[in-house]
Amino acid sequence: MIALGGGWDEKLKPLFEDERYLKIREFLKQEYSTRVIYPDMYDLYNCFRFTPFDSLKAVILGQDPYHEPNQAHGLCFSVKKGVELPPSLKNIYKEIYSDLGIREPDCGDLTKWAEEGVLLLNTTLTVREHAANSHSKCGWAWFTDSVIKLISEQTEHTVFILWGGNARSKVPLIDGKKHLILQSAHPSPLSAYNGFFGSKCFSKTNAYLTANGKQPIDWDLNNYNEV
C-alpha cells in the first residue's frame, strides 16, 4: 500500500485501486527487477510527498524523468544536490533572474519549491536508464492526466505552468475559469528563445496568488541549497 501523506492518499485512492494502475504496477515490478529505472522506486512519488494537497499553489508539468545516473528523484526538472545542472534547469534559473532578480543557484534540487506548494509533476513518472520516453506508453499518461483533472476540480486558484508542447496539450484538462494557466515554450536550449525567456511566469504566478489571497511562492533556492 502506498502511503503519501499530505492528504493525497484519500485523493488518489481511486486511481491506485483502478485496474489501469494495477497494470502499471505490474509493468514496473518487472522493469525495476530487470533493468535500471529512474527514479529510485522510493523516490517515485516524491512530488506528492513534498507538497501536501491543501498547500498546493502551483503545478509545473514536466515530461519524463532524467534518464542518466543520479539525476532523477521524483520532482520534474529537479536533480539531486551535487549533480551538474541540466541545460533546461539552467535556463529556468536564467528566467527567474531576469524576472525576479534572484541569483542563479549552483544546486539543482527543487525540493524547496515543492515544500512551498509547487507540485513538480512529470507526465510520465519513470524511465529506463539512457532511454528517454521509454515508459511513455505504459499507462502513466492516464494516471497523471487524472491527477491534473483532480487538482483542477478540487482546488481553487491554482497556477498551472505549462512549458512546451507536451505540457500545453494538457490545457483541456484544466478549468481556466477558476485557475490561471501559463503557457510558453519549453526551457530546453532548443526552444527557450521561442517564448520561454521573457515569459515572466514566476512573477505572474505570485501576482495571481497574491490577488487571490494566497501567499506568494519564494522561488529563491540559494539559502535553502547552501544549508
Could you walk me through the main structural features you see in this protein, from its secondary elements to its overall organization?
It contains 9 helices and 6 strands. Helix 7 (164-168) links the parallel strand 5 and strand 6. The strands form 2 sheets. A 4-stranded parallel sheet has the order 3-2-5-6. It has 227 residues and is α/β, with parallel strands linked by helices. Helix content is 37%, strand content 11%.
**Strand residues, percent:** 5-15%
Percentage of helical residues?
A: 25-40%
Give the number of DSSP strands.
Answer: 6
Rounded to an integer, what's the Rg over CA atoms? 17 Å
| Principal-axis shape | globular
- Biggest sheet: strands side by side, in what order? 3-2-5-6
Global structural class:
alpha/beta
Number of helices: 9
The termini sit apart by: 34 Å
Spans where pLDDT lies below 50 across 5 or more residues: none
Arithmetic mean of pLDDT: 96
Order of helices and strands: HHEHEHHEEHEHEHH
The largest sheet is: 4 strands, parallel
Topology of helices and strands:
Elements: H1 8-16, H2 19-34, E1 37-38, H3 46-49, E2 58-62, H4 87-100, H5 111-115, E3 118-122, E4 127-128, H6 140-154, E5 159-163, H7 164-168, E6 180-184, H8 201-211, H9 222-226
Parallel strand pairs: 2-3, 2-5, 5-6
Antiparallel strand pairs: 1-4
Main traits of this protein?
6 strands, 11% strand, 4-stranded parallel beta sheet, alpha/beta, single chain, 227 residues
